[in-house]
Design goal:
single chain, 721 residues, alpha/beta, three-stranded mixed sheet
Length: 721
């Protein structure tokens, strides 16, 4: 690692040319990116001087949470066995019992963890590491980099968020301790050049020369993980810690200062993760997401922080990371095999946290510290696209879990991530098995007295009365965290007022629960189809997320959701043919499936979301009394010029200053022996063969256009056309 003193690091960190593009520093960070065998990774290099030791209370909390979940699961299994197999074990009964145990232990652990979160919330916990919610800001002694990766995002929105964070940090008086890096992996050439123009405008508006930097990678190897890793290899030695952001991230300056100061005070800590709150939702779906995240999210996050201790997790953004720990421990290999299970790791954050913890570094979560924000996809359709990628990334963790030396809590993180997706097909099989058992009971002639002499009759296998109690108990455990979150909200008077008061908050919980319950079966089938497609070898790819609230065309909704509606009709017809009571029991599931098309349309509607807001429902404190960072971001977005169709070549040719800056930010020219870019050759050939600029530019596809704009030869050719 870089051994320069802080002053020298600061000087080197500011090395940039007039365009603001930062130059490459020597590759001093030993980022291990070429390891092929997970089991062969050494686990002793770079350990902190003081190994992390957990206080006894953390062990007791883990015993209470996991032990209670096991006891609940055992009792649930006993009662369910009485329902299904009271007169002897049947094949279908055994299948249903196994599925019930696997699914029940999932909700039991969520419940017992939520109880811990409830205790933490009532005691105003969720901090640690000497972090204070308010009071004077601590002084900083080192320099920190804020990293903002972006991939084909709206440049205006990205720069507006960064401007808000820049100004917020300036208001703390600690701006000189931070540098800002825009790490672009953008492949669309029009967005790329627009990013450069927005970066130059941001730097001019803030006076951020020597503090705000921009870099675009010509090839986005390993996606976001590779983007961050490339920065660490080239520039990480100049910064003791880095704050990782997402394209929609916002962090208040005070929040950033407090977690960075905590990192400076605790040399054995590698990562401090905040709890990002979802904001800026306008559609019904996004508003449901942000209300659930604001009211239920703290309970869940406080719960896992309560018993995870120094074995916390990493959610990929809105966290501060010790650069040395990341560089020495978190290098990701390519998983063996072909996609979708092989190749680079998509869900990299869980693995990076696990590797740093394996190296002896502590990973902490501080859900009690406010001022960290993100946004939600605007519709079920948009979140399904993102969820498909997350599904593949989490299933890849099956190859990482056996890695030698991982802490058992780190393994549990990854197994829970895997379970969050495989439970969907398990729920589906559970429903189908239930129909089959009911069908068996409906058509199988019961033998009340068999061949064996007995004073008592052999009643049918399924006990409907006992099944009712098991169902009620299961629903109580499933919904109890929402009730606990609401009770905790009542104890927080400011948050309760921000949610519209006790009555409106209760109605909002009811609306979110009912609509969420209708969406759940559709989400179950979406996740199930994702798991099946991944098992069949289909790679999810990596697409840019849609963050605006523009509605999805109704025709697209019909094409995406008709199969779920058809499945609901078939399932309902099957249940009706078996028995009317079974049909009535399955009504909540059937309603969501049968009305999947209008449900997707309504939840993705801005009008429906705003109607509930006007009614005072699904409110969160951050929209009734917005904090300073959100006001700054809203003002920066409002000041953006109206969106227009931007052509990269036209922008460059019409703006000599932008062209000069673009040339200065180009990657080094190709050297002898480097691979030949076929897109560049084809693009240059098209430009050579056409005497007219308009015709030549129109003939270029996206890849060829990007290749031409990435070389001085291509730019020279464009200027002479």
């Amino acid at each position: 690692m870089d051994t320069l003193d802080p002053g020298a690091r600061q000087k080197r960190a500011g090395q940039a040319d007039a365009s603001g593009a930062f130059r490459a520093l020597p590759d001093e960070s030993p980022m291990r990116m070429d390891v092929q065998s997970l089991s062969a990774w050494p686990d002793t290099h770079g350990r902190p001087r003081t190994p992390v030791t957990e206080p006894p209370m953390i062990a007791l909390r883990r015993l209470a949470v996991i032990g209670s979940a096991c006891l609940l699961t055992g009792y649930g299994a006993y009662e369910m066995n009485r329902v299904l197999n009271s007169m002897g074990l049947s094949v279908l009964g055994a299948v249903l019992l196994v599925l019930f145990v696997l699914l029940f232990q999932w909700i039991a652990l969520a419940f017992t963890s939520a109880v811990g979160g409830f205790i933490s919330l009532l005691r105003h916990g969720g901090l640690g590491l000497g972090i204070a919610r308010d009071g004077p800001l601590p002084a900083l002694s080192t320099r920190t980099a804020l990293l903002l990766p972006t991939y084909n995002e709206s440049p205006g929105r990205v720069m507006a968020g960064l401007r808000a964070m820049y100004d917020s940090l300036a208001a703390t008086g600690r701006l000189d301790d931070f540098d800002f890096f825009i790490l672009s992996d953008t492949t669309n050439p029009d967005i790329w050049v627009e990013e450069e123009a927005a970066f130059l405008a941001l730097r001019a508006a803030t006076g951020g020369q020597g503090r705000i930097f921009y870099r675009r990678r010509p090839v986005n190897t390993e996606r976001k993980a590779g983007n961050i890793a490339e920065w660490v290899r080239r520039f990480g030695g100049a910064y003791p810690q880095m704050v990782t952001l997402d394209a929609d991230s916002l962090m208040a300056g005070e929040t950033v200062v407090r977690i960075v100061a905590a990192m400076e005070r605790h040399p054995g800590v590698a990562l401090i993760q905040t709890l990002p709150e979802i904001v800026n939702g306008t559609t019904l779906f996004a508003r449901m997401q942000q209300f659930a995240g604001r009211v239920y999210g703290p309970l869940i996050a406080h719960g896992i922080a309560w018993w995870h201790g120094a074995e916390g997790n990493y959610w990929g953004h809105n966290a501060v990371i010790r650069t040395r720990a990341f560089a020495e421990q978190a290098g990701l290999p390519h998983l063996p095999g072909r996609k979708p299970f092989g190749g680079h790791i998509l869900s990299h954050d869980f693995v990076e946290a696990a590797l740093m913890r394996r190296g002896g570094w502590a990973i902490h979560m501080v859900p009690g510290l406010a001022g960290s924000y993100e946004e939600s996809p605007p519709s079920l359709t948009d979140i399904a696209i993102r969820d498909r990628r997350w599904c593949q990334g989490n299933l890849q963790h099956a190859k990482v879990v056996p890695t030698r030396g991982l802490h058992w809590i780190s393994r549990l993180h990854m197994m829970m991530g895997i379970g969050s997706y495989i439970t969907s097909p398990m729920w589906l099989v559970f429903l189908l098995a239930g129909i089959l058992i009911s069908l068996q009971t409906r058509f199988e002639k019961p033998e009340y007295f068999g061949d064996t002499k007995s004073l008592y009759p052999n009643w049918p296998h399924v006990d409907p009365e006992q099944a009712k109690y098991v169902f009620i108990g299961t629903m109580a455990i499933l919904l109890a965290p929402k009730l606990m979150a609401y009770v905790a909200l009542l104890f927080d008077r400011a948050a309760c007022r921000g949610c519209g008061g006790a009555l409106r908050a209760a109605l909002s919980v009811l609306v979110e629960t009912l609509v969420g319950g209708l969406v759940a079966p559709v989400a179950m089938l979406i996740q199930t189809s994702g798991v099946i497609s991944i098992l069949l070898g289909q790679d999810s790819g990596w697409n840019a997320q849609r963050r605006d609230d523009g509605g999805v065309p109704f025709g697209d909704i019909v094409r995406a959701y008709w199969r779920y509606m058809l499945f609901g009709l078939v399932l309902g017809g099957s249940a009706w043919s078996v028995s009317i009571p079974l049909f009535l029991w399955m009504t909540p599931v059937l309603l969501g499936l049968v009305f999947a098309i209008p449900l997707a349309a309504v939840t993705g509607s801005r009008g429906a979301g705003q109607a509930l807001r006007r009614a005072g429902l699904l409110l969160i404190p951050e929209e009734t009394a917005p904090p300073d960072i959100l006001l700054r971001a809203a003002a920066a977005r409002a000041a953006l010029p109206p969106p227009r169709a931007a052509d990269a070549i036209a922008l460059l040719l019409d703006d000599p200053a932008l062209m000069a800056a673009h040339r200065a930010m180009l990657p080094p020219p190709r050297r002898a022996g480097d691979p030949i870019n076929a897109d560049l050759l084809v693009g240059l050939l098209k430009l050579e063969e056409s005497p007219d600029r308009t015709v030549a530019v129109a003939a270029l596809n996206r890849a060829e256009k990007a290749a031409v704009l990435a070389t001085a030869d291509g730019l020279d050719r464009l200027t002479v056309l």
